[in-house]
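May I ask you to comment on the folded chain given beneath this request?
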Amino acid sequence: MVHGIRLRDGKAEWYRNRWVRTKEVCDVLGGTPPPSDWPADHPSFSANTSVIGHAGRTYAIVEAGSPPVELSYDLDTVRISNLDGTLPMAFSAHPKRDPRTGELHVMTYWWGWGNKVQYLVVGVDGRVRRTVDIDTQGGPMLHDLAITEKYALVFDLP
């Protein structure tokens, strides 16, 4: 579920909360699942960890292989997104925005990959510009990453 407050002229204009209507949520609560840019068997979990704005769109996101869920300005579910056909598979709940370029840096993983994670760079236009596969040991859960002016730091911890 996402919650939002619209602020205008220093005052709260409205408060809203909405279920992020993934297929799994619709299976439980009823209703029609949103359109998806992915095949029906693509992993999709409740996008319940974070909300970001990027390239004029708002996304509810979670880690562990699930794609981002695009939300409307009023917080309704628009679609399960593949970032205009450029997202290879998984996304992350904690991308980092480069303050200089506006790009998003993303460390993704999915249990089905085994000993591999992916590093992605999403351009200011909302499309994935770079994908790097990184071999790891033990299929880690990479909860976060850090970026510096020149590097993306991968925390491959036990």
In short: DSSP finds one helix and twelve strands in the chain. The helical segments are 23-29. The CA atoms of residues 94 and 144 lie 6 Å apart. The chain has a mean pLDDT of 90.
